[in-house]
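[SOLVED] Predicted holo structure with NAP

Edit: marking solved, answer below. Original request kept for reference. I posted the sequence and ligand SMILES and asked for the 3D complex as structure tokens.
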Amino acid sequence: MEVHQKKSYALITGASSGIGEEFAKKLAKKGYPLILTARREERLKKLAKKLKTQVIVIEADLSSDSDRNRLIEKIRPYEIGILINNAGFGDCGAFTNTRLEKEMNMIEVNIKAVHFLTKKLLPGMLKNNSGYILNVASSAGLFPAGPYMAAYYATKSYVASLTRAIAHEIKERGKNVYIGCLCPGPVNTEFNAVADVEFALKGISPEFCSRYALKKMFQKKTVIIPTLTLKLAVFFIRFLPSNIMIALTAHQQKRKLYR
Ligand SMILES: NC(=O)c1ccc[n+]([C@@H]2O[C@H](COP(=O)([O-])OP(=O)(O)OC[C@H]3O[C@@H](n4cnc5c(N)ncnc54)[C@H](OP(=O)(O)O)[C@@H]3O)[C@@H](O)[C@H]2O)c1
């Protein structure tokens, strides 16, 4: 059941495209006022104009420590009832071939920004005994390792692990606050272009992914996997020795590489 005060804001990171943009459209339709953030401010403003709700646009590069702090300062006056840590990206290739700078930025955005915003906003939600945090991980985060996309899989493992641990702590405290992680397989967004890959599996639409994720978030499901194929894959991981699972993942990842 969706229990929420509509006057508190939904903060969505990475709302300038893909899954984040769809989250914004869906939450706007549900009547939530929004705070949207990403680097491409023009795209956020264009989206804001289309949405029939109050929208605050904050341009921020989440790989930057100072921008993350500036974002927190800017949102201080607003009560955040929903945080969707969605911004993120990947990279593909053998570990010795991928660029260090891109991976360091990935760690900043996929791990540090998620950790930082969760740390900053969760205490207020616990105090109010209400709120939702949805961390967009990936099915990659539920696999033991991802050769040829090593850093990306590792960052998403961090997100899934952190989220499940915090969810347990909240449950032990008996609080009515949700934290969960969204773990999709391929979604047809700008992800491929940024990560330099082509999906080996057929992707789902960001519209379906966000709709499914919000439904499960309001039902308070901790690990959200939108497709049956990935649900089955994740189920069978527990029966396979991890070295075999890693070899299978390597095979799958190599099919994506086109360089
Ligand atoms: N697509 C998939 O197959 C897939 C599967 C599983 C999980 N995911 C996860 O889903 C999330 C959304 O990705 P998507 O598929 O929707 O890809 P996308 O269309 O490329 O969107 C990524 C979003 O992240 C933002 N972002 C990237 N770097 C940023 C930075 N330094 N600072 C602030 N914002 C930044 C981008 O905004 P700006 O460029 O404007 O900054 C953009 O809005 C990511 O966490 C991704 O890992 C995607």
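OP edit: The mean pLDDT is 95. Thanks to everyone who chimed in.
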